[in-house]
Amino acid sequence: MSIQVIGLNPAVDVEWRVDAYNWNEKTVIQSARSWAGGKPPNVARWLKYLGYESELLTPLGGEPGRLILRDLEAWGVNVNQVPLAEDTRVNVMVTPDSGQQLRFNPKGPKLSSSEWKAVYDNAEAGFRKHSLTILSGSLPRDASPGIHARFVRMARKLGRKVILDCDGRTLEIGAKAKPFMVKPNRFELAQWIGRSLKTRTDFLGAAKELSDVTGGWVFLSLDAGGGILIDAGQGVALSAAAPRVKALNEVGAGDSLLAQLAGQVGKSVDPEEWLRWSIATGSAFVQVPAGKLAKKSTIRKLAREVRVRKLR
Q: Which one, of 5, 239, 21, 48, lies nearest residue 137 by Cα?
């Protein structure tokens, strides 16, 4: 199965390492690095690394866009670029030697009507070419929150599967378009349902409600708590705890999990394997620095440790 990734608001990720924050005073940057980031490039990079055939459809503009394109091509990612007049955004992470990381994410560029038309035309061609599409990440500045729902309807009309990974109003509208699967984390699910979720029973109930709306699969990522996979219509509910590992970084862990999830769905293996390998990949990712790839041997080792159980 060939996989299309549609990412409408990619970014250059920049990390500044500092000794500590000096509030209201100069803070010296000890080291800096940058790479193609944002959810869609991360997902596409992981798909390539894991050996899945894929293509990334993304709008890119200015020097940040050129940097992203250079990185993606160096990683061997197949890119379908829509050129933009405005610059692609640049995300900044400030990481101290100890303490919490600061993250700054701009809204991104505003696309013109002709640029949006190019996006839609390329997406439709991609739906015809690829069996599965991942809709991932945030939207550009001033974009309609119903854009992902439009993509889902386009794909369904052609008999294609869509995995939706977004939040807020975009998730609310997109879920009603009935994608094959949605992949919220705990915060995104609580935001969608409009109430606090504290216990595993709370998460399970909310995930079932979301599955009732989509008529399909819900993969709930619980970070170090593992994940829950549900299709209420089929009466399937599975859970898996994440292996205990030492986490160095969590930026992009959900993207690695999503890439493996899509790849496993494409293999037509049992849902238990979707859950097992996705949790193992996310757990392997958090053990390496931001922007790096975990060893495949580590993923295989962790997959043997993941235990999937059926829920009532």
A: 5
pTM for this predicted structure: 0.92
Decide the pairing of beta strands 11-18 and 29-37: antiparallel
Query: What DSSP string runs through 218-235?
Result: EEEE-GGG-EEEEETTTT
Domains of the chain: 3-310 (3.40.1190.20)
Residue of 87, 60, 80 lying closest to 123 (CA atoms): 80
What is the pLDDT at residue 221?
A: 94
Tell me, rounded to whole angstroms, the distance of Cα 49 from its chain centroid.
15
Structure tokens at 254: 């959900």
Give me the residues of the chain with pLDDT under 50, please. Answer: none
pLDDT of residue 224: 82
The pLDDT assigned to 292 comes to 80
Q: Could you give the C-alpha distances from 10 to 35, 69, 86, 210, in angstroms and in order?
A: 11, 11, 13, 27
Q: Which helix (DSSP H) or strand (DSSP E) does residue 307 occupy?
A: none
Strand order in the sheet with 217-221: 79-83, 54-60, 3-6, 132-136, 161-165, 181-182, 217-221, 227-231, 236-240, 308-310
> In the 8-state DSSP scheme, what is residue 185?
B
**For residue 33, how many other CB atoms are within 10 A of its CB?**
12
Q: Which residue has the tokens 């992902």?
A: 148
The pLDDT tens digits for 32-77 are 999 998 889 999 999 999 999 999 999 999 999 999 999 999 999 9
What's CA 102's distance to the chain center, in Å?
20
Query: Residue 75 burial by CB count (10 A; 0-12/13-18/19+): exposed, middle or buried?
Result: middle
Which pLDDT score, from 0 to 100, does residue 247 have? 72
Predicted local distance difference test score (pLDDT) of residue 290: 72
Structural contact between residues 257 and 226, judged by C-beta atoms closer than 8 angstroms: no
Nearest to 38 by CA among 16, 65, 17, 63: 65
